[in-house]
């Protein structure tokens, strides 16, 4: 996942071509990075039921402390100087089809049970020049930003 981020930064060509040698994250007033970043909650599959219980009780902080993206950012490995709004919503990964409150975290395979623990894979990170005001008005199922 980290390598995907690094490759995108290395090979993405945007803006003034004379600035190609410069890190793209320094070339724009605002940079929004959003999508399914595929980082997971790093807990053993044996914790699946405990994770779902914590989600139902809206106890996200312990799970967020094991969030791979948060851990990698805290270690300074990816998304340096990017910000993310506080996560106050349940994980968006592995909902059962057509539901918003049941998780399908196990799948029977010929080789055994595969676990896909609920995680916050869908993320929005932003980076703006200093003293530029960006206000997040909603971060969750719906997203809304305003720039002043």
Description:
Residues 1-140 form the Inositol polyphosphate-related phosphatase domain. Keywords: SH2 domain. The chain has helices at 2-11, 48-56, 61-64, 68-74; strands at 30-36, 106-109, 112-115, 122-128, 134-139, 143-147. The mean pLDDT is 86. With 148 residues, it is of the alpha+beta class. A hairpin with a 3-residue loop joins strand 5 and strand 6 (143-147). The longest helix is centred in the first third of the chain and has 10 residues, at 2-11. The protein has a two-stranded antiparallel sheet with strand order 1-4. A two-stranded antiparallel sheet has the order 2-3. It has a two-stranded antiparallel ribbon with strand order 5-6.
Q: Beta-sheet strand percentage?
A: 15-25%
Give the total of beta strands: 6
Strand order of the largest sheet: 1-4
First-last Cα distance: 32 Å
Q: What are the secondary-structure elements, in order, as H or E?
A: HEHHHEEEEE
Determine the fraction of residues in helical runs and give it as a percent range: 10-25%
**Average residue-wise pLDDT:** 86
Radius of gyration: 18 Å
Which secondary-structure class do the elements indicate? Answer: alpha+beta
- Taken from the alpha-carbon principal axes, the silhouette is globular
> How many helices in DSSP terms?
4
Low-confidence stretches: none
Major β-sheet profile: 2 strands, antiparallel
